[in-house]
Amino acid sequence: MKTVYEKSPGLTDVPMHYCPGCTHGIIHKLVAESLAELGVLGRTVAVAPVGCAVFAYDYFNCDAQEAAHGRAPAVATGIKRVHPDNIVFTYQGDGDLASIGMAEIVHAAMRGENITVVFVNNAIYGMTGGQMAPTTLVGQPTTTSPLGRNRLGQGAPLRICEMLATIDATAYIARVSVHSIPRLNVAKRAIKKAFQLQVENKGFSLVEVLSTCPTNWGLSPVDSLRWVEQNMIPAYPLGVYKDIEGGT
Known about the structure:
Mean pLDDT: 96
Oligomer: single chain
Structural class: alpha/beta
Number of strands: 7
Low-confidence stretches: none
CATH superfamily: Thiamin diphosphate (ThDP)-binding fold, Pyr/PP domains
Shape: globular
Radius of gyration: 17 Å
Order of helices and strands: HEHEHEHHEHHEHEHHE
Largest sheet: 7 strands, mixed
Number of domains: 1
């Protein structure tokens, strides 16, 4: 019998803990497939965050290191500099990367560290109770902004891709989504390219993936996908924000 689909060798057989409808599992799949297809799985080191993906080291079939909250880019920098032939990536949520880890991600980008960052943006603190995150949309209710984020008192959401694309040393910055099959395919190409650039020693790359959080958004999985399309994408336009190779 012909095999038409099989689980990526880049993933373990450990059942994932994510909530129903959360797209972390899909993003894990795209990362794992990219590493396997590039033939670098055996020399890859993942750096797991504090947040919903805190157990990512159980799911990726490669070496992994846990990092303190927000410090994944610093940990990845150390690993990459000591073992430059390894492929090193961080997998971080918006609270981890854009709040407590803001200094780490900006300075890793500024130095042009030859690492890959997978940045999962679900516009909320998922693991710790649904608080407002740096990426929470204006008007979006959270446990710490029950009436919705107020621009006057709480500011506007941070747009990480737009910010990092202005840094000279970055090689590839892109924002994608996994709310539909066509968008999932685009996301896979972006993630794979980010890793390919690291293989070629081209420097720092980051792919932001717009993701769902049905539990803390108070929506069904299907409605969460619609919410990404109708609310997140207008606030966070998809596309390639920087590519040193000039591609799209």
